Amino acid sequence: MKKVGKPVFFIVALLIVFLTYTSFFGISTQYGDVTKTWIKGADTIRWGIDIRGGVDVTFTPPEGVDATEDELAAAQAVIETRLINQNIADYEVYKDTAKDRIIVRFPWKENETDFNPEEAIQELGETALLSFREGMETDENGLPAGITAENVILSGNMVESAQAVVDQQGLPLVSLKLTSEGAKAFDEATGRLSQESPKGRISIWMDELMISAPEVQAHITDGNAVISNIGDIEEAKDLANKINAGALPFKLETENYNSISPTLGMGARDAMVLAGVIAFILIAIFMILYYRLNGVVAVIALMGQVAGIIIGVTGYFPAIPSFTLTLPGLCGMILSIGMGVDANVITAERIKEEVRAGKTLDGAIDSGFERGFAAIFDSNITMIIVAVILMGSFGPTDSLFAKMLSPIFSMFGPATAGNIYSFGYTLLVGVILNFIMGVTATRLMLKSISKFKPFRKLWLYGGVDE
Amino acid sequence: MKQIAFMKNRKIYFGISIGLVVLTVLATLIFGVNLDIQFKGGTIITYSHAGDLDGGAFQKAIEEKLGQKVNIQEQTNVATGNMNYVVSLTSADGLSVEDQGALTESLQQQFPDNAIETFAVNNVNPTIGKEFFAKCLVAVAIAALLMVVYIAFRFRRIGGWSAGVMCVVALLHDVMIVYLTFVLFKFPINDNFIAVVLTILGYSINATIVIYDRIRENKKRYGSKANIGELVDKSINQSMTRSINTSLSTATAMIVICIVAVVRDVNSILTFAFPLLIGIIAGFYSSTFLSGPLWVCWQEYKKAKKAAK
């Protein structure tokens, strides 16, 4: 980094101000009643259930039952269907095949007033009622009506297995294998419905939700049916999982559950935000009073770091999903911002030293950054080590870091603590930003602003003017 | 700036820290460790209620329904200003969700005027709790090990392994003080504790690295003939302003968080911000007063051993 032009300061500073503003307030345009979000603001942060309240529950098969991977996938599909059915879109469900556990976390719905965690958990864990019904008549609530309500052709326990496959033309199918009892019932129903014109339908229901309603194409006598005309293989897998869930030979038990009321957490969140703003202002005042121009530049860089971490949490663009921020996640933010303050303090101290040792201003700035860098680099790399270990050990099992660390942590089940994963994530983002903001942006801004005449007084850098 | 003779007074600093170690052991023995149910398993249910509700009657109703002893505690509800009852089950087996639902229902029937509702439930299976605890400890141990390796590599010029090991000694010292804070204030040891320990781990290692970096630089500048003790004294004094300013800034942030948490009565924040504050102070102390002198002791011991041969 030899030459830095005069305008660089303004470019970097404006960029940071822009990032800060947009990361907090977002950008959206309103056209009639439709609001289109271009950039997500801080209000879109997904707060962890330790902050906004919600339910965290671990389901297992009863003792003595060793569930297969397919059975767990089926159980997971039931839980997901039920969550969607209750209009909860913001859930996390993952399965632990090593320990036969399914971990579910979901926040309370916004504006929810009737909290009944016991009921919510019980409903999720119940055995799914799968039924194949004649026709697809429903009432206004989407419940089966007419002939569909009356004639249940098959129930879940008459399905031996369902499987997603691809036929010779490469089209996705779900192939069903029925028990002999099921085959008999299906023989009668398909024989009749396939003769109808237009062809009759059989609807498939999980609990009180219709999940599919295929047309009956042929008379099936041997209990081996296929469902065709499915969008893609993922959809086929999903349907197969749901059908299998109705045939699960066991009920899920709750081993672990946690429920937090939203009022408890939101108080914590507001207090944290208030404290964060006050603390930032105090640190800014201190940095500017003590380090003068270096302090001003440092505060701009710190602003950029805070904005960057928020961007890392919200995703910034609507297409990128948000990350869940928990209380330990806030802890990680604090630590990384602390490290950002430290990087700026180290550099400013070094420049002061060099200026006082009688170096020229440009020489002092250059060697100040150079000498301070080794310490900043080493401590930030050690932080990255910590962050990666945490993300690997407490994150979802399919993440990159988890795969790297799997030989060490395979003896434990996957995260019972998404909270700590959040700490690793914000720390990692913060430390990377420390290199971008605390080191690079500060350096660019300082080198460029020091080219202006009014800013060449040594006093501004902690020195003594002759 | 006045130069502090760290090496001359090192016995005092070591003495203070040994005293803290003894205090930690004593405090653990006297007060015991308040392991959260997150790690040991068990059930805690928080019920919110309106109007006056007699704690004794409430407890009796629960004990009758469940057929076991329970502890109950009163707590102010931050949001509504009402009182909550926190019910903890002494048996570590946990309560099934069905039993818990039945309990809530029966309480609502017995105290119809109090609008009893489940405010928060925390039920942890002891196996999962222990597994989680073990996992936390393994994660911290692996992180510490990798740090030693990294520091040993980066500070190979100043006797890498000794620097790495001393860094970790300073770090363990700080973690111990954080733990002491939790024990003395009877904060539950839960995942907040793990987050605080990890934060202090990072903070402390950062502070120590800055000082070792200065030693590394000075050693390069003055060559290996210089007296190690004087070199370290000089390095610590040179980094002093930085150490004070950074610690002051981060400590200020923590003090603000603590004050807001107390004013707003948010206990969950206080139980992590306050130990963090203590940890930051400990980190400043250990990196300034312990890590340098400890490293010198190791170097002098090595020299003496070599000379004896």
From TrEMBL, chain A:
Domain SecDF P1 head subdomain intervals: 148-249
Keyword entries, A-Z: Cell membrane, Membrane, Protein transport, Translocation, Transmembrane, Transmembrane helix, Transport
Q: Which GO terms describe its biological process?
A: intracellular protein transmembrane transport; protein targeting; protein transport by the Sec complex
- Predominant subcellular localization, coarse grouping: membrane
Give TM segment ranges. Answer: 271-291, 298-319, 325-346, 381-402, 422-446
One Pfam family, please name it: SecDF_P1_head
Q: Which GO terms describe its cellular component?
A: plasma membrane
Domain Protein export membrane protein SecD/SecF C-terminal residues, every copy: 251-393
Q: Topology relative to the membrane, per the entry?
A: Multi-pass membrane protein
InterPro entries under this entry?
SecD, SecD/SecF_arch_bac, SecD_SecF_C, SecD_SecF_C_bact, SecDF_P1_head
UniProt KW Glycoprotein keyword: no
What Gene3D superfamilies does the record tag this protein with? 3.30.1360.200, 3.30.70.3400, Multidrug efflux transporter AcrB transmembrane domain (1.20.1640.10)
Q: Which GO terms describe its molecular function?
A: protein-transporting ATPase activity
What family classification does the UniProt entry report for this protein? Belongs to the SecD/SecF family. SecD subfamily.
Subunit relationships? Forms a complex with SecF. Part of the essential Sec protein translocation apparatus which comprises SecA, SecYEG and auxiliary proteins SecDF. Other proteins may also be involved.
Q: What does this protein do?
A: Part of the Sec protein translocase complex. Interacts with the SecYEG preprotein conducting channel. SecDF uses the proton motive force (PMF) to complete protein translocation after the ATP-dependent function of SecA.
Q: Which PANTHER family does the record cross-reference, listed alphabetically? A: PROTEIN TRANSLOCASE SUBUNIT SECD, PROTEIN-EXPORT MEMBRANE PROTEIN SEC
Q: Return the protein name.
A: Protein translocase subunit SecD
Q: What is the native source organism of this protein? A: Harryflintia acetispora
Source taxonomy: Bacteria, Bacillati, Bacillota, Clostridia, Eubacteriales
UniProtKB/TrEMBL annotation, chain B:
Locate the transmembrane regions by residue number: 12-33, 132-153, 165-187, 193-212, 244-263, 269-296
User: InterPro entries, alphabetically?
Assistant: SecD/SecF_arch_bac, SecD/SecF_bac, SecD_SecF_C, SecF_bac
Q: Please state where this protein is localized.
A: Cell membrane
Major subcellular site: membrane
Tell me the keywords, alphabetical order.
Answer: Cell membrane, Membrane, Protein transport, Translocation, Transmembrane, Transmembrane helix, Transport
Lineage, top-rank taxon, reads: Bacteria
Recorded topology in the membrane = Multi-pass membrane protein
Q: Which GO terms describe its biological process?
A: intracellular protein transmembrane transport; protein targeting; protein transport by the Sec complex
Describe its partners and assembly state: Forms a complex with SecD. Part of the essential Sec protein translocation apparatus which comprises SecA, SecYEG and auxiliary proteins SecDF. Other proteins may also be involved.
Protein family (similarity comment): Belongs to the SecD/SecF family. SecF subfamily.
Q: What does this protein do?
A: Part of the Sec protein translocase complex. Interacts with the SecYEG preprotein conducting channel. SecDF uses the proton motive force (PMF) to complete protein translocation after the ATP-dependent function of SecA.
Q: What is this protein called?
A: Protein-export membrane protein SecF
What is the protein's species of origin?
Harryflintia acetispora
